[in-house]
Design goal:
The chain has 10 helices and 14 strands. The chain is α/β, with parallel strands linked by helices.
Length: 289
Amino acid sequence: MIRRWLLLLLIALLLPAPAWAAEILTLGVLSYRPKDVMQRTWQPLADYLTQAVPGHEVRLRVLNPAEMEGALQRHELDFVFTNPAHYINLRSGNLLSGALATLVRAEQGHIVPAIGGVMIVREDRADITQLRDLYGKRVATPAPSYLGGFVSQAYEIVDAGLDLGRIRFESSAQLHDRIVDAVLKGEVDAGFVRTGVLEDLAREGRTEIAQLRILNRQTLPGFPYALSTRLYPEWPLVALPQVNSETARLIAARLLSLEADDPAAIAAGIHGFAIPADYGPVELAMRSL
């Protein structure tokens, strides 16, 4: 009997470690574009973290705001990657960490650590040329929890002394792509999307984007995207309370060491990650609204 147990022990030691030995970490990513696009964009980052943090497997879940809130309530997520306004909202109702790292995008040779909002109308809408012209108009937004899809634009309108209550906002949790389509088809008068969406669509062959005009256009040196608002820090990655501090530290370290030429960075169209930015301006804008 003793020999049998010794033999079994020897076999167990010689066999490769089973797949279940890895600790599974779930990364929830907020979806602002179609889920298949987001999956292709961010799956390489999850794979990179799996390889970079031994003993862990990072699994990606692309979620809309309602799905992410439900997953958080059921304690199904270990890390959250989301837009800054959504992060501030989640932080107020969940025990999130501070940001572990802040995203830095890359666009046509530019390093872009900031996000803003874009207000779009059809080029032929001569009746909408300034912010005040939005009064009484139907304006499509993805959701109030999106910084680049609502908060940044709404703050510019309020800061200009205008009344948000006189604008007919239509927020139905639509993806940014759908908002662009609604404006192009004349289903709404204007739409709010985040910076970078129009450029992504143009790269994907959406030539009809040329039929759109940017309302309240801002031109900032070195900023490569169409823009209607001031800028705010890019997306943060945060850890949930159940993640031990050593694991969170390792994840943060690997994100900060991600090089711009790594396949994960190239797939996501990013330069990498930087130390956490100050999200105070985002909270200030939200409180002002």
